[in-house]
Amino acid sequence: MKTGGLFVVTAIAEILGCYLPYLWLQKGKSPWLLVPAALSLSLFSWLLTLHPAASGRIYAAYGGVYVTTAIVWLWAVDGIRPTSGDWIGAALCLAGMLTIVLSAK
Fold it and tell me: Which of 40, 57, 59, 93 could link 67 by a cystine bridge, Cβ 3.0 to 4.6 Å?
């Protein structure tokens, strides 16, 4: 549970760090958004170091949580309702993440 929560916080930091430059480049928002974007991506990098397993395994397992968090972001922030295919894909990614995490112990 602790690892899953850390994965979600890590994913939010990464998505936010990429979303803010998107707002500047595609939506005409202030270039000052690059400052919190850089901070968010720095936080993302630091959060990855808090995971107790080998980095390659962490990155692989993290990918499943990232995909799922991005689908939730699509709905909550972009206002686009995910399709059933989005949810099925996210569930498959989470199943892969759980397989990696549970087999490492």
Answer: 93
Q: Check whether 104 has a pLDDT greater than 80.
A: no
The two three-digit tokens of residue 50, written as one number: 């808090």
The rounded Cα 76 to chain-centroid distance in angstroms is 14
The contacts of residue 66 (CB under 8 Å, 6+ apart) are 7, 11, 14, 15
The C-alpha atoms of residue 7 and residue 73 are separated, in whole angstroms, by: 15
Question: pLDDT for 50-60, tens place per residue?
Answer: 877 667 777 88
Residues with Cβ < 8 Å from 26, sequence gap 6 or more? none
Q: Classify residue 56 as exposed, middle or buried by CB count within 10 Å of its CB (0-12, 13-18, 19+).
A: exposed
Show me where the domains of the chain are located.
2-103
